[in-house]
Predict the structure.
Amino acid sequence: MNQHQKLKIVNDPIYGFITIPNGLIYELIEHSYFQRLRRISQMGMSYLVYPGAHHTRFHHALGAMHLMQKAVQVLRLKGVVISEQEEEGLCVAILLHDIGHGPFSHAMEHSIVNNLSHERISLLFMERLNSLFNNRLTFAIEIFKNEYPRKFLNQLISSQLDVDRLDYLRRDSFYTGVPEGAVNSKRLITMLNVVDDKLVVEEKAIYSVEKFIVARRLMYWQVYLHKTSLVAEQLLVRVLKRAKELTNKGIELPASDALLFFLKNPVSVDSFTDEMLVTFSELDDYDIISALKSWSKDEDYVLQNLSKMILNRDLLKIKLKGKPFSQKKIDQEKNEFISRHKLSDHDASYFVFTGTVSNQAYNMEQETINLLTNRGKVIDVAKASDQLNLEALSKKVVKYYLCYPKSNY
Amino acid sequence: MNQHQKLKIVNDPIYGFITIPNGLIYELIEHSYFQRLRRISQMGMSYLVYPGAHHTRFHHALGAMHLMQKAVQVLRLKGVVISEQEEEGLCVAILLHDIGHGPFSHAMEHSIVNNLSHERISLLFMERLNSLFNNRLTFAIEIFKNEYPRKFLNQLISSQLDVDRLDYLRRDSFYTGVPEGAVNSKRLITMLNVVDDKLVVEEKAIYSVEKFIVARRLMYWQVYLHKTSLVAEQLLVRVLKRAKELTNKGIELPASDALLFFLKNPVSVDSFTDEMLVTFSELDDYDIISALKSWSKDEDYVLQNLSKMILNRDLLKIKLKGKPFSQKKIDQEKNEFISRHKLSDHDASYFVFTGTVSNQAYNMEQETINLLTNRGKVIDVAKASDQLNLEALSKKVVKYYLCYPKSNY
Amino acid sequence: MNQHQKLKIVNDPIYGFITIPNGLIYELIEHSYFQRLRRISQMGMSYLVYPGAHHTRFHHALGAMHLMQKAVQVLRLKGVVISEQEEEGLCVAILLHDIGHGPFSHAMEHSIVNNLSHERISLLFMERLNSLFNNRLTFAIEIFKNEYPRKFLNQLISSQLDVDRLDYLRRDSFYTGVPEGAVNSKRLITMLNVVDDKLVVEEKAIYSVEKFIVARRLMYWQVYLHKTSLVAEQLLVRVLKRAKELTNKGIELPASDALLFFLKNPVSVDSFTDEMLVTFSELDDYDIISALKSWSKDEDYVLQNLSKMILNRDLLKIKLKGKPFSQKKIDQEKNEFISRHKLSDHDASYFVFTGTVSNQAYNMEQETINLLTNRGKVIDVAKASDQLNLEALSKKVVKYYLCYPKSNY
Amino acid sequence: MNQHQKLKIVNDPIYGFITIPNGLIYELIEHSYFQRLRRISQMGMSYLVYPGAHHTRFHHALGAMHLMQKAVQVLRLKGVVISEQEEEGLCVAILLHDIGHGPFSHAMEHSIVNNLSHERISLLFMERLNSLFNNRLTFAIEIFKNEYPRKFLNQLISSQLDVDRLDYLRRDSFYTGVPEGAVNSKRLITMLNVVDDKLVVEEKAIYSVEKFIVARRLMYWQVYLHKTSLVAEQLLVRVLKRAKELTNKGIELPASDALLFFLKNPVSVDSFTDEMLVTFSELDDYDIISALKSWSKDEDYVLQNLSKMILNRDLLKIKLKGKPFSQKKIDQEKNEFISRHKLSDHDASYFVFTGTVSNQAYNMEQETINLLTNRGKVIDVAKASDQLNLEALSKKVVKYYLCYPKSNY
C-alpha cells in the first residue's frame, strides 16, 4: 500500500522545501564526497564582512537542484519533451557541479592546487562516483561535458542564465542580507522556453533579465569583491603559499595529513591520481582554520602574523581604484614596514602587495542570453534592451588594489 | 505617572509598525480629508493585472512618513542638526503630499480636473487644514513649497531620491508581487547625509543607488505602464470624457453629486474655490466605480460599453512599440469597428485610439542624486558610476500604443 | 509547434505566481460573476485597523486554487490516485467556494440577505454557471456538496484543515502585517496524505498543526474580532438595517438599484429566483460605500450619523469582556445619549447596543484533524498532542461587547 | 565638521542593519575573545537536519544587542528613564552573555568542561575583559549578575521574555527555514513597559505572548530536540568522552593543544585559572571537527566509528517516546551489536544508549511574564489567558530516547 509513502524533503529558508527526487540522488547526497560540501563555505571569507554568510556548497548544490526540477517542470508544461533519464541527468549534473571545490571555495585554486580548476576536479569526482554507482551517472557526465546532443540541457547547467547562478545569487543575497542582489529565480524560470535546442527567455521577462544582470554586477562589486573580503582572501592565499614555501624548505608545519600532502606535492591535471582525489576529498575549511590556529603561534613571523590577522579579523588596509598603483607608492609602504620590522623584501611582500580584480556583468562574446519575442523570433538580450546599455555592462571592469599594514602594526 | 504611556502605532506589512509621532499628526490623520485617502487606490487600475495591488494613498502616506522619521534619525546620528519643528514640518509635509489625488490617482487629472495637478490640490488642502489647525502647518507648507531656507529638507520630500519614491517603489513592488522592483529603502536611508545643505548619499551606496534607478525603470515598464493597466487607465479616462460630453449636452447621467459637479463644471487654478475643494474632498474611487456600474446599463453605446469593459476586465486589445503607428493601420482598425457597429467616427474613436507613454529612469537635467566620496567630495552619481551607463538611462524612452477592439467585439 | 506555448500566470505576493490550470478555469475567472469578487473586500471593515487589508475575495479564491494544485501534486507523489477530472473539480469548487459572498463579505448576511448563507448562494451561482458552461461544473458541484463518493476531496475544500483556511489565514496575516498569524501552508500541504478515504497529516507535522490552530485563534481575537473592526462591522450592519427600516416605511433612499432591491424585498432560500441571483451579482462593496456617502447627508439622524462614523472612522466606543454587561450599565449609556440628543429609545439603540462574539479554535465535535502516526495508525490530533491542551482550545470562547458613543458625541 | 560622520553598521538578513552604538562596544567586538564566537556554531549539530543552520554565536550576540537598543528606545519613548551608562551596560552585558560558550555551544558542557556552565565562563570572560578595559564593564557585570538596583534591566537580559530569546528564536527559525517558530520580536518589544521596576507587556500583546510561548515550544520539539540533531549531539558528547577516556589511559590522540588540555585536565569552578580561560578561548568548533577527522582513522573502534558517523551523517537510529524504554529492549539492541562486532559491554554502550530530553514551554515557578492590563494592573500572563492553557504548557514534558546502530552496521 503506497499511500503511506513519504517524500524526502529538506528545509530551506529560501524555497521552503527541497524535494529529493529519487533514490540515486539520495544516495549521492549521502556519500561522504558530497557530505564534505557541508564543510566548504560557499562564500569563502565573506563572513568577515557579512556575518550571516556561513552557508555551504552543500546547501547551494541542493538549491540549484531544486531550481533545476522547477525548470524541467516549466519546460514540460510548455511542451518541451524531457525524458525521465534526461531529468535525472540534469539533477545529478547540477548537484555535483561544484563537488570539486576546495576549502573556502577558491583560495586553494590560487595557492596550492593551482594548476587545476574546481570544474576539472568536479569531473574527476563524477567519474569516480560513476564507477561506484554502476555507470548511472553517464548521462549526467555527458550533459556536464556538453557532449550530449541536446545542447539546451547543458545551458541549464552552465550559461549566463543557468540555475547555478539563479541559486547562488539569490542564496548569497539572502544570507548576506543584501536584498538588492536578490534575483527573482521563480519568475525567470517561469519565463524559460526552448527554441531550436536553445534556451530562451520570453520577451516579457526582459526587465527581469536586465535586473538579473545588474543584480549580479552589484553582488560582485558590493559583496564578492568587497574590500574586506578581498584582503582576507588574499591573506589566505598568501598564508598557504608561505606554508608551502616553508614546507618546501623542509620545515614540518602542524597541519592535517591531507593539507600537508598538498603543501608538499605539486599537482597537475595529468598527474592527478585517484589516490590524490581521495586525499583531496579529505580537505575542507576545517583543515585550513585549524592550521591557521596552530600557525598563529609559529615562530615564522610571516606565517604567524598572517594567520592571526585572519583569525582575529585584524586585517591589512586596502585601497581600491581604477588605475594601477605607482611603484613608488608600493615601495614606500613596503619600506616603511621593512624598517619597522627588519624583514627581508621577500617576507615584506607578504604584507605589502598589489593586484587586480575584475568583473564583466554580461559577456557579449560568450553564448548570449536569448529572448523569444512575441512574434517568435530569437534575439540577443543586449539587442532587445531599449535603454539599459548592455554593451556598457559587457565591458570588463578592472580595479587595482594595494594592501599594506596599518601604520601601528 | 507617565510609564503607562502608550505609543500610537499602525501595523504595516512592510515596516512592521508605523509610529504616529505626535498629537498634531494624529489629528491630521483623523481628519476626513485624510481618511478619504483610504478610498483612493494607490495604483489606479493596476489591480486588473496585479490582483494584490489594492493598497491606498492612505497607506503610502503613512509609509512615507515612517521613512521620513527614519531619515531624520539617521541624519541626526551623523551630526546633522534638525529641530523638533523641522521634523514635524517634514512629517506633515510628506503625510499630506498626495492628499490632492483624485479617484484612481491619475485618471481624474487626465479627464475632468484636467487643468489642475494633484500637487496643486494638495497644497490647497494643506492651506485649508492650516487655517483649521491654527497655522500649525506653516512650516510644512514652506518646506513643501521649497520656500524654507534649508533646501535639503525639501529634497527629502521631493527629489530623485526622496522618501516618497522610496516608499512607493517598495510598497508597489510588495503589493504587486514584483520583487525585482523592491528598493532597499533602509540601506539607502542609512547612507544619507547632508553636505552644504544638499542631500547626499555615501559613496559606498553607489550600487544601491544604481539598483534603485534600475528598479524604478523596471517598475515603470513592467508594472505602471503594463499594457493591460495602460489600456484600462485609458478606458477610464475616456469613459469620464464621454460622461462629460453627454453631460454637457444636457443629458442627466446617474452619478454622485460630487462627480456630477465636476462633470458639469470646468475647473481651473484661478477659479478653484474653497467650496470646490470641499466637493473635491467628497470624490473617491467609489464614486467612479459606482457610476460605471450604472453607466454599464446606459443607453449610450459608448458609455455603456466602455463601462462594461472596465468592470468585467474585458478590455480593448493593445499594441505597444517604439515607433508611431501608421495612420493607415489606425484607420483600418477604426473602419472595421465602424462597419461592425454602425458608429460615427467620433464615437468609434473612443474604442480605437493611439497615444504615447514615456519614462526617464534618471533625469540628468533635474537636480541630480549626489554622492559623497570617501574623500569628502560631492559628485553626480551619473559621473561616479564606473560602468552602468546612467547617461543611457537618462534618455527619455517613448513608446507608442494603439488600442482597438477584439475582432469578435 | 507547441514550444511557444505560454502559461497563464498571475502574480501573487505570497506564492510568487499562480498558474491558471486550464481553459475552463480561465473562462470562469473571466466571467463577470467571478470578476465581481474583485470588488468584494476579503476582510470587511478590518482595513480601518489594518490599513493594508484591502485584498479581495478574488485574490483569495485564486490563492486557494493554487494551494489546491499543490495539494493534488503532493498527494499524487505519495501514490494517491486523483484523476484529471477530479483535479479540475477540486480547482473549480475551491475557486467558486466564496462566489456567493455579498459586500464586505459578512455584513450583508447579518442585515439584508439574512436568511441565506453565502455558501448557499455560492451553490446557486455554481449551478447557474454549470448551465452556462454545458454541465462542465457537475463534478465540482458534487464535490462541493459532499455528494461525491471520495470524501477526502470534499475535506480539501471544507474541513478544519482545508486549503480555504490555509490560504486565508496566510493571506490575511500577510496583508494585515500580523506575522504571528502566518501559517506554513507549504509545510502543512507537504505533510498531507490520504488513508481510507480520509485526509490525514503525517505525525511529524504535529507541531505545525498545533501552530496552525493557535495561529487561527490569534487571528480571530487579534484581527478578525479586533474591537475596532467589530464596532465598524456592527455599525455597518445597523446602518443597513436602518436603511431597510426607512425603506419599509416608504422613504426613498439614494442607493443603487441592486441595493434598493434587497432593501425592499425580503429574501429566503425558497423564494430566491434566478432573477434575484442576477441582481445579487450586481451588488458589491461599491454600492455600500457609495450609499453611505449619500446617506451621510441624509436628514435621518440615525442613518446620517452611522454613515459618517464609518466613513470618517469616527466610531463608537466599545468594551469587550468575558461576562455580560449589566442592564443598568447599558441603560445608563443609552439614557445619557438620549438626553444629549433627544432621541427615541428605538433610535438610540442604534448607538448603544450589546452583543457577543465567539470563537472556537478547534472543534472536537466536528470532523477532527487526523494524524497519521509513524506506525500507520490514524488518530485525532487532540489526542496526539502531548502538551498543548487542545481540549482547552476546543472550548468555545464567548466575549460580550458594549458599544456606545464617545462622551462628547 | 561632523557631518561626514559615519555609522558603524553590520548587515543582517533579519534586521537589515545592526548599528554598533559606540567605541567601547566596537573594541569589544574586535577583541579576539569575541571574534572567536565566529567559530562557534549557534545551533550545534542542527545543520545536519537543517542545512541552513550554520549561523554563529557571533551573529546572535550582535542581533540580541540590536534588539536591546530597540527595547531601550521604546521604553524611553514611554517615559522610562534609562541613563546612557545603563544603556551601555545593557548592550555590553547582552553582547557578552554567551561569550563563555564552548564548541558547538553545548556539547562541551556535557562532556569535558562538565562542571562549569557557559554562563559562569561568560562571567569569567567579562571580568577579564573588565580589567583589560579599565573597569568600563563594571556596570554591565552588575546588571548581568543581577546586582544592579534596577531589576528590570536584568530582566531584559535574562527572563522568560528577554532579548536573548527574542533574537535566538527568530534567528534560528530564519536560518533553519522553520517559519512557524518565528517570533514577532518587533511587536513584543514595542509592547514592553516597566511598572514598579518590573518588565511588563501591554495587555493587547497577550496573543503575541501566547504565540511566543507556543513558538518556543515548537522550536524545542521540532528543531532543537529534533531526533537527528539529538542523536548527533549525543554522538558528539560520547566521542569526546571516549577521547577523554583514552587520554586518561595515557593514549596520545591527535588534537589541538587546547583540546588536549581539556581532555587531560579536569576543571572545576574553583580551580579555573586565568590560564585555563586563555586556553578555553582558543577552543572552537574547528578543534572538534578537525579532531573528528583525525579520529575517524584512529585504531580505536569506538573513537573511529563515532567520528565517522558524525562526519558522514551516517548516524545511529533513534526512537523517542513518552515512557522509558524497557531494560529488555535496550539489552536486546546492545547484545545484537556486541555479537556482530565482538565488543565489550562498555564499548557497546557508546552505540546503544538511552536518555531523556525535556522542555517546559513556560515556567510558572520562575519569575513570570507579566501583563499590564488596560486598567494599569500587573498580572501573570498565565492567569490572563482566557483559553490557551498555560498551566498545561507549564508542565515539564519529558521524552525518552533510545539510540542504537542500524541493523546493517
Notes: The domain at 2-216 of chain B is CATH 1.10.3210.10 (Hypothetical protein af1432). The longest helix of chain B spans residues 227-248. Chain B touches chain A through 25 residues (CB under 8 Å). The CA atoms of residues 140 and 277 of chain B lie 20 Å apart.
